[in-house]
Amino acid sequence: MAFIPYGRQYVDDDDVAAVVKVLRGDWLTQGPNVADFEEAFAQKVGARFAVSFSNGTAALHGAYYAAGVGKGDQVITSPMTFVATANAARFLGAHVRFVDVDPSTLCMDPDRLQEMVSPRTKVIAPVSYAGYPVPLDKITAVARSVGAIVVEDACHALGASREGGMVGAQADMTVFSFHPVKHITTAEGGMVTTNNEELARRLRLFRSHGVERDPSRMSRNDGPWYYEMVDLGYNYRLTDIQCALGLSQLAKLDRFVQARRRIARRYAELLKGVPPVGLPPHHPGHSYHLYPIRVPAERRRDVFEALRREGVGVQVHYLPVHMHPYYKDLYGIPDDDLPNALNYYRETISLPMFPSLEDHEQDRVVELLSSYLG
To answer: Which GO terms describe its molecular function (predicted)?
Structure first.
């Protein structure tokens, strides 16, 4: 039987043609497709500005920089995320603190956040885990009480929505990823959206060497060729080739999200007959980057390995960040200090979830899961 991965990109002839057109044109990078992609993306999610980056981690790094994060500052996030959400703060010399997840959402528990903030808190970075749009109202209120900026890690949640519109316009900055298993792909890529013009300016500065070209912001101006490096930035640019792919993919986003929601509904129906399985939290605006179920902890490894032997590419998302050796050595947080994240990690398995997943493949996944849990 053919291997079924947990995630897979969907690239069609339109995507290929869009990339070929750029390859045959004059601009491979720093050309018009970058601005076009950013403008279309901002319009799609309802934000004023969108700034592209070479990958999601670079986008997080840029967002924290734009927020003014520096040495000794504090960034608060969720332990249930990929390590990049925390690592990007460490790149800037900040300390990371973790707030346990709410079992009903698997996102940051806003009721536990207040006790974690301090005058050193510069950023609160909630994660819209698996595509569930993290509730922001309480988190934003806590952030405002200490003058912190909210950076939503929505790398799992493109196309998701919450009260007030699509994810991407409610936080001070929202970060997305275009890795191949995400909702749309540019092979690698990321984006930060914001409604704040100054934050957008700082994002652009950071992603291109800290170079300033606006004469009004330079110390001098020797001519139309002139530019100045005003801060220590990076080369985190996304190419025109990738942006052409992104534009083509963005046109299919609604279809991709609808497919993921249909697959999620079907999983929920099929898994009704498998009593030991816990389903992921439901939200009408969920965009289902992942479909993580829960199984009895004592059986998780055996079930995982059995499904892999049968050609089903299940995965585990994630080892809580505070449990990785780097963070254990740095902060010494006991595993059970964040019990909801720990318990969830011990029980979770991510089932295959991607727009082109066929019904017969989904049936096979559930039949095998049922046979090993029965």
So the answer is: pyridoxal phosphate binding; transaminase activity
